[in-house]
Amino acid sequence: MAEWIGIGRRARRCYGFDEVALVPGMLTINPNEVSTTWTLGGVDFEVPILAAAMDGVVDVSFAVAMGKLGGIAVLNLDGVQTRYDNPSEVLSQIASASPEEATKLVQEVYTQKVKESLIAKRVEEIKSHDVPAIVSCIPQNAEKYSQIAQEAGCDIFIVQSTVASVKHVATEYQVVDLKKLFRESRIPMVIGNCVTYEMATELIGIGVSGLLVGIGPGAACTTRGVLGIGVPQITSTVDCSAARDHHYKRSGEYVPIITDGGMRIGGEICKAFAAGADACMVGSAFARAKEAPGGGYHWGMATSHANLPRGTRVRVGTSGSLDEILFGPARVDDGSQNLVGALKTSMASLGAQNIKEMHDVEMIIAPSIQTEGKVFQVGQGVGMGK
């Protein structure tokens, strides 16, 4: 699988969304008769596309709207929603800043300390609308924040970092015992992010309810440029899904894989499921919703790092309502709306009755899939040429 890249050093080829395509089989199905339902922590969700825990994407109102549509929106407990009593003012400042000012402003905004009282308040605000409350924070804050969130009625807790590991070495601060944290939790807990079979195997083994896959593919993330770290999402999803399947055969416990980042349009989401994902986490597509708090702007979770930001603020614009982005009707020609409809149509065309059957469809290496026959779209900047 690996090729020589120099004397004594080999590297294997890995693949992203633009380099593969899905191949129809011997069966087609009515799109209205396929199931996109998936299960997390024993609860079924009809929409297998999560809104990422980013401040330009999810606030309380967005989480409520997503929940009422049958999906999950994750609230960032390390973000502005828990640092400010009135976060909308701060979000407006970030949206109106010039590109030159944006990174500095984001860094300054996140120097305000998190107010623990706001953690409980935000969870309670979401729960008051009779929808699930799902929240996220970094490992260093997970023990304290998860207790507060659970007491407030949180349904699912996500521990999320750029690179997740069970073994973490540090002398400047106390390292969280993830095994103990997950074992003692009263609610399902998800962890991320990882990109390899070995790490997925180890993380699944500590009792997680779900696993986030992806390092650096997000539209606003610059981790791959700043740190040089990352594995393209098709390969990382395939590898981590293999760890999930091996764990299931060995223990009978199925831990869903959530591909996180790098998916802008329906076709990329479909390819993630074919690579083995049980669900996908998306940021920029939802940042374009009228309900998104970023006002058409989107920035990564690591953008606010005081010394080494690994993200940038990007303008994505506002293209439609959350309902249109999820279920249509699509009012744009680039595949960024009616994501669930695209998934159902793809599944139907491939003969996949449900998400698990989608894991078995044929995938080919096809670097020309994005450009073949698309000269007019590319030349005119429409459709797949955008």
Explain what the structure shows:
With 386 residues, the protein is of the alpha/beta class. The chain has one domain (12-368): Alpha-Beta Barrel (TIM Barrel), CATH 3.20.20. It contains 15 helices and 16 strands. An 8-stranded parallel β-sheet has the order 6-13-12-11-10-9-8-7. A two-stranded antiparallel ribbon has the order 1-2. It is globular, with a radius of gyration of 20 Å.
The gist of it:
A hairpin with a 2-residue loop joins strand 4 (38-40) and strand 5 (43-45). The chain has helices spanning 60-68, 87-96, 99-109, 116-127, 139-152, 178-184, 197-204, 223-226, 233-251, 266-274, 284-287, 322-327, 339-350, 355-358, 375-380, and strands at residues 2-6, 9-12, 20-23, 38-40, 43-45, 49-51, 74-76, 134-137, 156-160, 189-194, 210-213, 257-260, 279-282, 297-299, 313-315, 362-365.
CATH topology: TIM Barrel
The radius of gyration is 20 Å
**Distance from first to last alpha carbon:** 34 Å
Helix content: 25-40%
Q: Structural class of the secondary elements?
A: alpha/beta
Q: Strand order of the main beta sheet, please?
A: 6-13-12-11-10-9-8-7
The CATH superfamily appears as Aldolase class I
Overall mean pLDDT stands at: 92
Number of helices: 15
CATH architecture: Alpha-Beta Barrel
Name the CATH class. Answer: Alpha Beta
The count of β-strands is: 16
Major β-sheet annotation: 8 strands, parallel
Give the overall silhouette.
Answer: globular
Percent strand: 15-25%
- Summed up, the domain count is 1
Keywords summarizing the entry:
two-stranded antiparallel ribbon, eight-stranded parallel beta sheet, 16 strands, 386 residues, TIM Barrel
